[in-house]
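thoughts on these tokens:
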Amino acid sequence: MGGLPIQSSSSVISVQSQKDKGSTIVASGPDLKPKKRICCACPDTKKLRDECIVEHGESACEKWIEAHRKCLRAEGFNV
């Protein structure tokens, strides 16, 4: 199911379905922007980081926190 065009002032806006949200930001121009929202990027390292923090506390999980930051940087985020 694709987006539905909606007429607004002088331009057409594409509305995405809930299923597609967060995965359609496209990089363009000289400044490459992340293709995903930060909350949706790096789910594997995010899960490991969060589980470690809940079980052991933030100070004991620097390894997982840094691994998640490294993954986010690879995705184009400035963290």
